[in-house]
Q: What sequence folds into this?
């Protein structure tokens, strides 16, 4: 038992240096026991209360929280599954493929509704809708768009307001963006028309929801499409500049998922952490932007955890989808 | 009675063979059901896999020599199940890997659109693999697209477990039912034998008539043999009784003649030693004659036991007559016969036989009683009508009392006294024929007491 721990302690700093993390934080550094390494795509600010509540319950356990993009999580974890204990990501398709490929540990003791877990190894713990976030000032005197059709109409009618001031995910870089895009395209052809229009208006492409919201707040953007509503909630003071719209034509809801690595050296603590995640404790306590709990999900709009999620990860299909998307949104 | 040697038990044989058969059938039922269901379940998974593979091939197209496959969302969606089985796939173009899981490969053994199924292992799990091909025809070349689609078998294993459990329940239920039925069938069959045994056991000792009750076909030969055996037995018994009666009768008459000659000669002979010899001769003739008449009595009783001529008789009157007739005999031996009766004692019985029995008992008393003593004969009414004969003779030897009623059995202290050993047997048989009893006792102060009750 001791040797692997020592090895891990020796290797950790090396990995940390080698990897350029978006954020990296050690909780409960004085812990005497295991230090869980959690690989996550969720901003530390959003996730911190959950981890703090966990280490408060189990003071002997420390948590090293490592944040990177969903695509990077997939690459890093596949390269070395033993280096991380728990993986939390918003890219359901990548998570499901990891579980399908046998990287996730089966946790038979965890009780969770069947629609929110897969193979008793991949567990969903939030329900977060994809939202259109607008800067209210830009829509002054006009109706707030309720559907994608409304949005297309407004953009066509008033291109001067939107030109170069609209943003969406760069789905080539963001796993979550790709998931939202593919589910949109699956739901309706409207998505492609929307992308055409947005491309025509010089849409800005972003890696993450946080950046889009920052630019919305600063006025560099008037509208962002497929933003994580949960991230925007922090800026949503009543009467503030921003407003979140959940399109009523077809809402898309993502479930943030977590699993324990099959090669984890601390399956007990890791399982405890997943159970803690599913219990929802700390999810809304103290955070500025709490993660929406699972029970807020409307079943119809939620992306289903099933092997079909893997189809868009197929090399041929992905290449084809990205080509189409590029053709729509990048217009020279 | 000697214990009959027994080999095996019909009931056990039946039960064992029936239950063994049932167990075998139940096992067979279980195996066949499970195999069949497993086959059906596997066919279910295969057909879904085949459809998924077909839908993927359907989405393949060739553009400017470039293969494009727009993997349908539904093709994997249809593979989703409650057990969340893992799905793997690989797409090949003319045996060159295009997309999916490298390393997953299986040959397609059939023509386009004819899926090949096999079970193998991939990524550490047991999987069912389907392979299907499609030939795409481009502008100037033909190319073959091959899809290899695999799914783990957790759901199938669960289904199989459920099916096995149900099949096992079915088999067990069948077995229990069959076992119950075989027990029932066995006891019904054995029951017929028991009924026959009981009706044989319940028969009286003299009843040798044929069985007339209906029996199952299989038992008819046995009962027929039994009946014929009993018929022969009855016949030979009757013949031997007839023979004894005939023989006794034939012996008695010449004996009487011989006795008359001996008596006459005795009158004419004066020499003391000759008279002595003649007296001994007369006594021997008497003994033979008496034995012959007792044999006759006994034979008659045996024959008549089956056909008693029952009629109302007064026991007191019957015994009174007899006492009167025997008084001269008693006088000759210097004995008194004291008769006592409490009025009329009516019973239902065969007067000839009852007289026979009582006469034999009084004869016995006369024989053993010492001279100058009294033989007391009394008829009582209740609790059961009975006749008691008491004397002051030597009484019965204590340890022989139970066996004295057997044929030709005489007490040890009877040596030197004339007798055949049939007297008590006759009395006993008559009592038995009348559902009565013969009781032997020794009197206080010496002597025997015989009680014949009806």
A:
């Amino acid at each position: 038992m001791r040797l692997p721990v020592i090895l891990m302690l020796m290797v950790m700093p090396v990995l940390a240096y080698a990897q350029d993390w978006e954020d990296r934080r050690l909780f409960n550094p004085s812990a005497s026991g295991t230090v869980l390494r959690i690989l996550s795509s969720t901003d530390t600010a959003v996730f911190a209360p959950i981890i703090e509540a966990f280490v408060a319950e189990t003071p002997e356990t420390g948590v090293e929280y490592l944040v990177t993009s969903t695509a990077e999580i997939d690459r890093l974890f596949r390269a070395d599954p033993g280096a991380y204990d728990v993986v939390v990501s918003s890219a359901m398709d990548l998570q499901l493929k990891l579980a399908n490929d046998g990287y996730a540990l089966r946790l038979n003791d965890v009780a969770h509704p069947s629609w929110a877990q897969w193979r008793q190894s991949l567990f969903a713990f939030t329900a977060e809708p994809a939202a259109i976030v607008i800067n209210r000032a830009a829509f002054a005197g006009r109706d707030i768009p309720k559907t994608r059709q409304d949005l297309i109409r407004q953009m066509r009618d008033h291109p001067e307001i939107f030109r170069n001031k609209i943003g969406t995910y760069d789905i080539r870089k963001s796993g979550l963006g790709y998931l939202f895009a593919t589910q949109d395209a699956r739901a309706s052809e409207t998505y492609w028309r929307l992308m055409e229009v947005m491309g025509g208006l010089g849409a800005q492409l972003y890696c993450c929801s946080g950046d889009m919201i920052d630019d919305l707040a600063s006025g560099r953007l008037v509208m962002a499409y497929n933003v994580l509503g949960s991230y925007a909630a922090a800026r949503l003071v009543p009467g503030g500049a921003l407003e979140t719209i959940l399109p009523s034509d077809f809402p898309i809801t993502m479930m943030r998922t977590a699993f324990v690595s099959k090669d984890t050296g601390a399956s007990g603590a890791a399982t405890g952490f997943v159970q803690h995640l599913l219990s929802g404790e700390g999810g809304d306590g103290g955070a500025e932007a709490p993660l929406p709990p699972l029970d807020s999900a409307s079943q119809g709009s939620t992306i289903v955890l099933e092997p079909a999620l893997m189809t868009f990860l197929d090399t041929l299909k992905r290449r084809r989808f990205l080509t189409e998307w590029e053709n729509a949104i990048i217009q020279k | 009675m000697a214990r009959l040697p027994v080999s095996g038990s019909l009931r056990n044989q039946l039960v064992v063979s029936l239950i063994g058969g049932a167990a075998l059938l139940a096992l067979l039922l279980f195996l066949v059901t499970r195999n069949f269901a497993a086959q059906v379940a596997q066919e279910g998974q295969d057909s879904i896999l085949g459809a998924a593979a077909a839908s993927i091939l359907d989405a393949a197209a060739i553009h400017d020599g470039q293969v494009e496959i727009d993997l349908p969302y539904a093709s994997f969606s249809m593979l989703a199940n409650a057990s969340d089985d893992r799905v793997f796939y690989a797409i090949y173009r003319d045996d060159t890997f295009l997309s999916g899981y490298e390393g997953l490969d299986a040959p397609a053994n059939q023509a386009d659109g004819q899926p090949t199924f096999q079970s193998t292992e991939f990524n550490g799990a047991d999987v069912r693999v389907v392979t299907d091909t499609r030939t795409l025809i481009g502008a100037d070349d033909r190319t073959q697209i091959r899809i290899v689609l695999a799914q783990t078998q957790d759901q199938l294993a669960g289904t199989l477990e459920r099916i096995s459990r149900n099949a096992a329940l079915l088999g067990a239920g069948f077995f229990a039912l069959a076992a119950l039925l075989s027990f029932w069938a066995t006891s019904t069959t054995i029951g017929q034998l028991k009924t026959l045994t009981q009706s044989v056991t319940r028969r009286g000792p003299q009843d040798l008539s044929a069985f007339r009750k209906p029996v199952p076909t299989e038992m008819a030969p046995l009962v027929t043999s039994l009946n014929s055996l009993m018929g022969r037995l009855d016949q030979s018994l009757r013949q031997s009784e007839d023979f004894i009666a005939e023989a006794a009768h034939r012996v008695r008459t010449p004996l009487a003649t011989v006795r008359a000659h001996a008596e006459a000669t005795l009158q004419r002979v004066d020499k003391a030693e000759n008279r002595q010899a003649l007296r001994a001769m007369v006594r021997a003739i008497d003994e033979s004659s008496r034995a012959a008449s007792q044999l006759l009595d006994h034979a008659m009783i045996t024959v008549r036991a089956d056909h008693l001529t029952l009629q109302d008789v007064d026991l007191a009157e019957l015994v009174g007559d007899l006492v009167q007739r025997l008084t001269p005999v008693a006088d000759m031996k210097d004995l008194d016969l004291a008769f006592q009766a409490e009025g009329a004692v009516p019973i239902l019985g065969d007067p000839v036989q009852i007289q026979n029995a009582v006469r034999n008992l009084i004869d016995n008393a006369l024989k053993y009683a010492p001279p100058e003593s009294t033989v007391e004969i009394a008829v009582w009414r209740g609790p059961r009508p009975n006749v008691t004969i008491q004397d002051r003779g030597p009484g019965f030897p204590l340890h022989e009392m139970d066996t004295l009623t057997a044929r030709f059995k005489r007490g040890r202290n009877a040596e030197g006294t004339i007798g055949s050993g049939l007297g008590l047997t006759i009395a006993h048989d008559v009592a038995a024929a009348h559902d009565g009893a013969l009781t032997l006792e020794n009197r206080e102060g010496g002597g025997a007491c015989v009680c014949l009750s009806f």
